């Protein structure tokens, strides 16, 4: 059925061939038409997300192994099955590695099912940029498929394609068909944190509205959809569906690209593009459609949770024939044994080891005595010692595991060495080349890496990896997910922490998710502020909405209005408002900086544009004791503790605030001397650079001799 | 043009087309990936694709040296078999082509010897060769062979008696040809390559005709007013029944073979089936059995045992037949065969000789392919999917003792005599290459 449309024949006795092969009879007549319209596909090899950190520091995401085969292979197999002839592949981070891999792969060989496989490099930082780049290159000639480089599917695309073309013949404005897989309300392969909601007109399969519900945003408030009342009035039938797996397989016409180009601020294909185009239906008149499948497999490895789920699906053969024993890569020799055990040739198993169900073992791997393995993927050339317990683990190539180790529900990347008697708890991620000394236990949710963001090897942290170990703990806050385009928001970073995906085995979800999330907020909020839950809500809402507005360049007065409304609703204090502002501003600045801007210009740009937003939160201009301004500076300082280049940003921010006359000299003094600003090591570090500014201020006012007195003065006053 | 794009989907058709236009190495890779992706499946399509590919391989070999040809074909064959070990017909066809080359090579040498007599090239004959006269075929030492029978003495009774078309049987039963006849037809400088290509063509023809040849025996086995039970929508079985239906009235009970083949069975029974041989250009559209006035009763697989007491004969199709007489057939076949055994109902298996594999099944499990569990359990059911393992075997292994008779294009055989046909068709040295 792999390639058959209507017949579900599977047994071999029936040499049934699908009707499409009619073409085989008169090849001459058909060739002319085929040349006319080549079937093209665009693969977004990088989705510009950081969900696979820290692994993606060393390797592009689409080369990460899924059941011992790189992700991209599954996507290309899917395209080959669909009969695609030309593939354009957009690489993002580590695109050199990807290009090298592809050049050596079978897809570039003469026998490749693709007539052309082009690797396009771009400096894009979002899917939107890629699409606009593509539009500029004029490569697309007809209908094409857009998939991300992590799609796994055994769906024959013909049905969707035929429907798309039929619709297109009658209506030129039907520009896109999205393939969606139906799944129940609870499904391991569905994204659990953000669930897409599609509002569909079932009579025309037309998508009318799209929204993403973020489950981690507000736990108390019920999720809410905003559907235009007109939609409800003008359509007799509406399906509001949340049970769909969005596998991001889109069949598009070239018009789709021009729409991307028209809206330069669209970044993600769903949250922005789909939502936006549907909203502006009145303007553009384009319709987007859905093709909902009930059989065949289609999913995306969008995050670590999906990685776990899709791996399980592959081992359970839901993706048939894209299973390990199909040996997609040349040189693979997997064989299916009883109990979903996929084993390659050349595996050394000790006599007394127990290999349980749903396990993959690659070539050259040896497993020691009395070791028990279950639900585990083991790569090639791994050495597993004696008395080891592996359960639900994903262990890539060349890993050495000492005796008596216990690994549950963790991902262990290439070349990791685990000493004897280590314990790795569920949800831990050990990135490339990490070495863990004997007897260390890695707590759940820990991420350990050796590589820094810039590709250099970081400093080892013996507290984490033990004496003689290599690697340090990767803290997500280190560089936040600002480039996480799918759901850029403060909440999304919280999502990663809380995400049960971190806990790879389903057993530990409940315990892990709660305590990890506690940690994360503890870290990012610092100890200064203890807020009750309501204010927490306000903080979330406000910082997200602010952040979104900043990014979209909404005018300052509108932002101000929004903020006031939110503040009124939640009855939030000034301090909370400032906190939200600070968080949103700093996040935005950080993002600008990652986009290549210097710290100075970025800070100036944001503060100049939104000066009055900040101005309206400071009410102590006339007073001597500048409590509000000090509070603002403290919040800034505290927020920047967790950010990249926080010290530089703090310096520029301080300068900018001064120049805009938002914060007065006295406030700087009071802040500098406030014990809260120097009570922890981090706080001191982050303000070191601001020292020079404060000094300069003091000099400028020619109060150099009374630097210390100023505090006393203000205290007296 | 939508219809065009549908025709693009890779499959047997696109492969045959690719074979015409592309260099042979590309075609080999293409076939390997098609087999891996299961875009070519079912015994006959695999067999046809393999035979066509090997024809291309031989054509592209610019040599007449049989040793080199053998090496080349072995090489390609190994890769094809590794791509999809469970499609055993691929290996069968490769072995038959190897056999063809060896035959031609030997004939060639005989011709040389008959002209120049044995002389200079006599080598010391190893004792091993004397010990085992049936295993002479070391192709590097031709002198070993010329003083005894050129191939294992395999003129089996069956092939003598039940040759339906002696003319056509030349490639299918190479063992039964008389070497003398060959010698006569070509001189000393004959072209091994073109002979082999000719042979492969005959194999391809055989693949096209095999169902009709089998159907020719239908009237010997199906009698009036019998009740026949069958399973899956196998074309071979359908043609067999249709042939009998032209002359006799009987009743067919059709088990629907859920979940992998039920749609096709429903279509076959109701006559809505697409003609699957269309692209081979061999067959005309077939009327279903019901239009011939045959009563066809469609039953769920679970009802097989209950119906068995009324059944006179079970006729089954198969995926492949193994050397020990056992068979690998669509899942559900084994229960039917067992039920038939309990009721002492004869089980007849219809299968082309090309499905007969020389492989002895030491590990039955490895022969069975597991398919997509979504046919058994809907993937939507997230809670269940997460907690249980679902297995959907596509094939069953049916041991030889459950089968009473095989009908191939060469006639009817008892399972215990299959080894004979195996040795007629495959050279010993090719069985495990």
Automatic annotation (TrEMBL), chain A:
Region feature (Disordered): 1-32, 515-535, 697-717
Compositionally biased intervals (Low complexity): 515-529
InterPro entries in alphabetical order: ARM-type_fold, eIF-2B_epsilon_N, eIF2B_epsilon, LbH_EIF2B3/5, NTP_transferase_dom, Nucleotide-diphossugar_trans, Trimer_LpxA-like_sf, W2_domain
GO terms assigned for molecular function: guanyl-nucleotide exchange factor activity; translation initiation factor activity; translation initiation factor binding
Keywords: Cytoplasm, Initiation factor, Protein biosynthesis
Domain of life: Eukaryota
A Pfam family of this chain: NTP_transferase
Main location: cytoplasm
Localisation: Cytoplasm, Cytosol
Entry GO CC: cytosol; eukaryotic translation initiation factor 2B complex
Acidic residues: compositionally biased ranges: 1-11, 698-717
Annotated family: Belongs to the eIF-2B gamma/epsilon subunits family.
Subunit structure, interactors included: Component of the translation initiation factor 2B (eIF2B) complex which is a heterodecamer of two sets of five different subunits: alpha, beta, gamma, delta and epsilon. Subunits alpha, beta and delta comprise a regulatory subcomplex and subunits epsilon and gamma comprise a catalytic subcomplex. Within the complex, the hexameric regulatory complex resides at the center, with the two heterodimeric catalytic subcomplexes bound on opposite sides.
Protein name in the entry: Mannose-1-phosphate guanyltransferase
Organism: Penicillium salamii
Automatic annotation (TrEMBL), chain B:
Subunit structure: Component of the translation initiation factor 2B (eIF2B) complex which is a heterodecamer of two sets of five different subunits: alpha, beta, gamma, delta and epsilon. Subunits alpha, beta and delta comprise a regulatory subcomplex and subunits epsilon and gamma comprise a catalytic subcomplex. Within the complex, the hexameric regulatory complex resides at the center, with the two heterodimeric catalytic subcomplexes bound on opposite sides.
Gene Ontology MF: a single term: guanyl-nucleotide exchange factor activity
Protein family (similarity comment): Belongs to the eIF-2B alpha/beta/delta subunits family.
UniProt keyword annotations, A-Z: Cytoplasm, Initiation factor, Protein biosynthesis
Biased composition (Basic and acidic residues): 137-150
UniProt subcellular location: Cytoplasm, Cytosol
Keyword Protein biosynthesis annotated: yes
SUPFAM superfamilies according to UniProt: NagB/RpiA/CoA transferase-like
Record has Cytoplasm as a keyword: yes
Region (Disordered): 111-190
Protein name per Swiss-Prot or TrEMBL: Translation initiation factor eIF2B subunit beta
InterPro entries: eIF2B_beta_subunit, IF-2B-related, IF_2B-like_C, NagB/RpiA_transferase-like
Species of the source: Penicillium salamii
Gene Ontology cellular component terms for the protein in this record: cytosol; eukaryotic translation initiation factor 2B complex
